[in-house]
Amino acid sequence: MPQFFPFRGLLFNPNKVALQDVVAPPYDVINPEKQNELYERDEYNCVKIDFAREDNRYTISQERFQDWLKNEILLTDAAPAFYLLEQHFTVNFSSYTRFGIIGLCKLEELNVHSSIRRHERTYSKPKEDRLQLMNATNAQFSQVFSLFSDATFLTDEHCLALASTNPIADFEFENIHHRLWRMSDPNFHRQATEKFSLLELVIADGHHRYETALAYQELQKKDNPQHTGNEGYNYVLMYASNMLNSGVTILPTHRVVFSLPQPFAITLSTLEKYFRVKHYFSLKKLLEGMRRFKHLSFGVAIKDTPSLWLLQMKDERVLRELLKDVSADLQRLDVTVLHRLIFEQLLKIPLEQQQQRSVIDYENDGFTAYNTFLSGNTDAVFFMNSPTVDQVFNVGICGSTMPQKSTYFYPKLPTGTVFFDTQQF
Fold it and tell me: 0.85 cut: is pTM over it?
């Protein structure tokens, strides 16, 4: 059962900084240009401790973090609390609001017996970076984003009732309106902790951060002969959102393929064996066509042809034989069919090569992906529909994992709203 608790959050001092100037996107979506922009935005922007650009960045992050604590740029709340975060945003000209609650979750190993499940595979390099940062600072600066399903708890209506008071923070960041409330009521604390103990959680975003927290816990346990299991390093900073709410949104993640092992004519004839193929001359029309078909449909642009192509699976029953080594809950997912059937079996791109960013890269905006293709530096782009929230949650609950970069939950959680100092637990 998940153990989810209020805690004494570490927050920026509103008397010394404006929150919209010191928050940042998650480290894994910050490119060098964005990093430099954040450095210039404010001397206390959290990127300077979460994703510093200096060569000795872990030492620099630790020194800055301690300096900000000493000078009360960051303040630890006097009493435990949960923190309710509201994000209001627009996708495809429609407005949405997503609520979630920030607390501490007791760490569990990620396996089929755990009440906390992953849905996606991870890379080793980001975990090494995050572990070095956590070892240096003994703090967690970003939340793991998890999903749960419950018809009565933290629904849209419940969250609106909880948010009836003035927020402790109200700011705009990257065209998203954020509001944050400190939930200090002990009765709500008991209700939330009891409710979470009955739920199952699926990690939506932040798999690397969760696995880093597990690795950090193991290192701390080895160094602490008096280990009890209640120390701060046994917990991970987590944001939990009800998947039944209207604002839980996933954007598509398109695949940019730098090198195809076969020329266009062979590639297209190979795909036609299992897919109906229709050509388009407009990306807008192609994406609209994909959305109409929804399930098991892909768009593709291939080098040396002016056309865009819509692929629609002819008979999905063949997947039982073609993907017989894949669990049933994964077989009918678009991302599985793309990577295991199209890339691996039809286009002969081995799985280990698919995991290399020099072979396949990822882009959430279809027009940006297409422009990259038109620049002449890639052989193909495969356009995707988004998986549904139900699909992602069910994959996690069943104990399966989707390929890397299968999901892009939008909006990302900003880093800088609430930190967790593991030594001030």
Answer: yes
